[in-house]
């Protein structure tokens, strides 16, 4: 294998890795693993990634795929420094990017959308799933307000120093907010940010490949 291979599900969190790959300019191909169709639980995919999650990144010369969005994004940023996906020469600014991702992936995605869409991950009893989902929506609403406040100071990207691996994941969450019926246009700064991210050539290519609208 002479190119990366990204295993992704259209519109899932794997979109951030898809955009980052496009940003690097490195050769890669893709394979759709539809979460909606439960392809991630197929024997074939479980042999590739026993965690049954997307994304997964196959790396040339590496026998094991790389999994987990923060790990994939950090790897791509460090492996392809000319893409300027992390401020690698500034430890604090680099840490700020990881601070963003830890919260977005762990809290907003994992707890907020995890509770909303998959309450059974938290507790088996269906009788309480409605309450768990409602709690997840509350987490999302509060997080969206925090994101908007962070972006409302006039910055162009998530971190003032420039575009980074954080920005594609914010676009994912913006899309998800719209998908669950939230009026995302009331978040003016985030809406402008989403349009900037989606307008980048790399994002346009990834969005088109996944059959998604821009923002």
From TrEMBL:
PROSITE patterns: GST_NTER
Lineage: superkingdom: Bacteria
CDD domains assigned: GST_N_Beta
Pfam name, any one: GST_N_2
SUPFAM superfamilies hit by this protein: GST C-terminal domain-like (SSF47616), Thioredoxin-like (SSF52833)
Keyword Chaperone: no
Alphabetized InterPro entries for the sequence: Glutathione-S-Trfase_C_sf, Glutathione_S-Trfase, Glutathione_S-Trfase_N, Thioredoxin-like_sf
The keyword Ligase is annotated on this UniProt entry: no
Keywords: Transferase
Molecular function via GO: transferase activity
GST N-terminal domain segment(s): 1-84
The protein's name in its UniProt record: Glutathione S-transferase
Species whose genome carries this gene: Burkholderia ubonensis
Phylogenetic lineage: Bacteria, Pseudomonadati, Pseudomonadota, Betaproteobacteria, Burkholderiales
């Amino acid at each position: 294998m002479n190119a990366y291979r990204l295993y992704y599900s259209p519109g899932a969190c794997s979109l951030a890795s898809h955009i980052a790959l496009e940003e690097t300019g490195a050769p890669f191909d893709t394979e759709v693993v539809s979460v909606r169709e439960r392809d991630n639980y197929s024997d074939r995919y479980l042999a590739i990634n026993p965690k049954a999650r997307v994304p997964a990144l196959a790396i040339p010369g590496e026998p094991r795929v790389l999994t987990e969005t923060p790990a994939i994004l950090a790897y791509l940023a460090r492996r392809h420094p000319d893409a300027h996906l992390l401020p690698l020469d500034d430890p604090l600014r680099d840490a700020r990017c990881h601070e963003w991702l830890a919260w977005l992936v762990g809290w907003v995605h994992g707890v907020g959308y995890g509770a909303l869409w998959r309450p059974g991950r938290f507790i088996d009893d269906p009788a309480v799933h409605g309450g768990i989902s409602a709690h997840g929506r509350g987490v999302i609403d509060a997080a969206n307000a925090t994101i908007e406040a962070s972006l409302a100071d006039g910055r162009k990207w998530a971190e003032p120093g420039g575009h980074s691996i954080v920005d594609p994941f914010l676009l994912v969450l913006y899309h998800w907010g719209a998908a669950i019926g939230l009026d995302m246009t009331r978040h003016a700064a985030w809406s402008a940010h989403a349009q900037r991210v989606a307008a980048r050539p790399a994002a346009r290519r990834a969005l088109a490949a996944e059959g998604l609208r821009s923002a």
